[in-house]
Amino acid sequence: MYATIALVAFAISLLVTPLSIKLGQRYGFVDRPGGRRQHQGEVSRLGGLALFTAFVGTGGLVFGLSAVGWWEPIGPEDRKLLTGVLVGSIFMFGVGLWDDLKELSPGRQYAAQFVAALIAIFFDIIFQRVTLPVLGQTDFPWWITYPLTVFWVTGMINTVNWLDGLDGLAAGVAAIAGLLFAIHAYSLGQTTVALFPLALAAACLGFLPFNFFPARVFMGGGSMLLGYALASLSILAPAKVATALLVLGIPIIDVAWIIIRRWRRGQPTRAGRDHLHHRLLDVGLSQRQIVLLYYTFCATFGMLALVIEVRLFKLMALLVLGILTLFVLWRLSHT
């Protein structure tokens, strides 16, 4: 079943991506060089269509196979949670497509992300019970649970959206995160839940041959879909948030660093080439080098979350990652 789901998601993405390239070029959904865009020629930005079709389509297939008895029955709780993952992903893909067409203002984007967080909350995808170092398992009251869920979902959407600045970067990191989420869920006995991050990872892998440098297609608003999917899937298992923080620690810290710098300059919504991957590009690293460097760090620290059982050691690994990332950001900001 796991091989089947992975192959189906991969195949759908691999087959639909060339179609998204043709549709983007035919109907003018393209990015042209200039400003922050350093690519050559017109590139379709409808790649999110392939990610959407592969992930949501394969997720629907899991429900269908379970309904006809070809897979184990899905319990009411998991059914509700996984439905929330798919519904929110569909919504965010629609928002991303709308943004590709109309170029939504930051305010409208944030409003849509807030609605996505409310969708997650409606389907009980929330931070209700967490396991903390020293303190152990902690149940949060609703007045912490709901704002924390909104913060996590909107923050993850923006993290992945802003990470999509170099060819293959966001899709590759999302593939790594999805694969590690799947392994983690399976190890906890969440056999059906594990299929969904596995499908997400396979969808990204099918998209990557066309998106890796030099990209023939961009994911465009598909980054919002990936952000919501990763945010919601990371809440569906104990300790999976720690995995998400270690896999996506570098882009998360980069986003926080940029927000603080822009607020200090009085330009909180200004776009620019001040992300970590842009700064590494400016100091002479190639796109391929930067992307592979991200892959290496994200995979290495993500695997630490799986092999380290002591929560305090996970926290120490996260602190090490944070200190290293902040040091690099500080050094690059003074060059």
Short recap of the structure:
With 335 residues, the chain is mainly α.
Would you mind describing this structure in some detail?
- The protein is mostly helical and 335 residues long.
- The chain is 70% helix and 4% strand.
- The protein contains 13 helices and 4 strands.
- It has helices at residues 2-27, 48-67, 76-102, 106-122, 142-163, 169-187, 195-211, 222-233, 240-247, 249-264, 276-282, 287-307, 311-333, and strands at residues 30-31, 43-44, 129-132, 136-139.
- The strands form 2 sheets. The chain has a two-stranded antiparallel ribbon with strand order 1-2. The chain has a two-stranded antiparallel ribbon with strand order 3-4.
- The chain is globular.
- The mean pLDDT is 89.
Q: Give the number of DSSP strands.
A: 4
Rg measurement, Å? 19 Å
**Strand residue percentage:** under 5%
The largest pleated sheet is described as: 2 strands, antiparallel
The parts where pLDDT drops under 50 for at least 5 residues are none
Order of helices and strands: HEEHHHEEHHHHHHHHH
User: How far is the N terminus from the C terminus?
Assistant: 51 Å
Mean pLDDT: 89
Structural class: mainly alpha
Count up the helices.
13
Spatial strand arrangement across the major sheet: 1-2
Give the fraction of residues assigned to helices.
Answer: over 70%
The dominant shape is globular
For this entry, give a set of tags:
two-stranded antiparallel sheet
Topology:
Blueprint lengths: L1 H26 L2 E2 L11 E2 L3 H20 L8 H27 L3 H17 L6 E4 L3 E4 L2 H22 L5 H19 L7 H17 L10 H12 L6 H8 L1 H16 L11 H7 L4 H21 L3 H23 L2
Antiparallel strand pairs: 1-2, 3-4
Helix pairs in contact: 1-2, 1-7, 2-3, 2-7, 2-8, 3-4, 3-8, 4-5, 5-8, 6-7, 6-8, 6-9, 6-12, 9-12, 10-13
